[in-house]
Amino acid sequence: MAVQRIRIPKDKAGLVQSLVDFNEGVGPFQTYADVMAFAATVGANLNRRVLLDTVAKEPSPISVEVFISRGYDSLIKLLAVVANNDPNCLSPYETEAEALRISIFEEYANAGLEHLQNELRGAVDYTERLLLVLSMERFQDSSVGEDFDLTRFL
Measured between alpha carbons, how far apart are the two ends of the chain, in Å? Predict the structure, then answer.
């Protein structure tokens, strides 16, 4: 059985790379998996999924094991159950179920990256701009329990 990988959209690869803090960069995230998990929560908060057109070669697709080691496996499963409204997609024995979970996660992440791309356009300091976006989200009038709570990332 091949190890599943989370793919990064080609048109957003530059954004993903710029959001990671390595090689003396100033990105707010430590790993590509962190960026993709954050983007997926943004996409879920917007209740929006976007299919991947083309996949980036660099950064290369990320092994699901990285997401599991960082504790994002619950997020992947939660998004799949919410999107499908079917707990059978959580089956650890069916490869089709795992592929479906990953596909849903990628689509939410793609939508989130699309939104972040628009929000971060022209920003010099992504960390500061992300904090502003999260603060605005936090103080918007919304019903409690309907949306994902992004304040955990503050």
Answer: 38
CA torsion angle 27 32 34 37 (round to 10): 120
Residue range 125-141, pLDDT digits in tens: 888 888 888 888 777 75
d(CA 17, CA 29): 10
Q: How far apart are CA 27 and CA 89, in angstroms?
A: 34
Specify whether the CB–CB gap between 16 and 36 falls below 8 A. Answer: yes
Which phi-psi region, left, alpha or beta, contains residue 125 (left: φ > 0; alpha: ψ -120 to 50)? beta
Q: Residue 20 pairs with which residues in a beta bridge?
A: 29
pTM, rounded to two decimals: 0.85
Helices (H), 3-141: 13-18, 32-45, 64-69, 73-84, 95-119, 126-139
Write down the domain spans for the chain: 5-140
